[in-house]
Amino acid sequence: WRNGIFVVDGSTINLFAKPGLYRETFYDWKLNYSLNCQLMIMPHNLLIMDYALRQLGSIHDAYTFQNTHIAKSHGALIPQRHWMWADMSYPTEKWCVIPFKKPWGSLNWKQNTYS
Question: Could you tell me which residue ranges the DDE Tnp4 domain spans (predicted)?
Fold first, then answer.
């Protein structure tokens, strides 16, 4: 993972009780009331570099990621020629690298090595 310095992924954090207002918007696909958490870490030491915990559980990871500091100010946080690893639900940018999506068949050896 040469030159990659961050890893990002999203997860839901379950709420203890149903919210009083707009409870259906907190309802996620796992049938829980939750908030969406985006976490950016440095994989070599597990240091948390950025996080976002303000979106509802029903919101997609890619949308929640747009509200993180690193997505808004990536030029100041990620050095040139470095990037962040993410899964296929995130945008493909020069600073955000995702694995190849499998087309109708399997990946060739170069794509497989990359992914």
Answer: 8-111
Q: Domain range for residue 110? A: 4-114
Q: Give the residue with greater pLDDT, 27 vs 55.
A: 27
Q: Find the angle CA(39)-CA(87)-CA(15) to the nearest 5 degrees.
A: 40
Question: What is the pLDDT at residue 10?
Answer: 83
51: which 2 tokens?
A: 């996080």
User: Distances from the Cα of 92 to the Cαs of 30, 50, 67, 83, 95, in angstroms?
Assistant: 27, 19, 16, 11, 8
Give how many domains the chain has, as a whole number.
Answer: 1
CA distance 39 to 33: 19
The β-bridge partners of 7 are: 41, 85
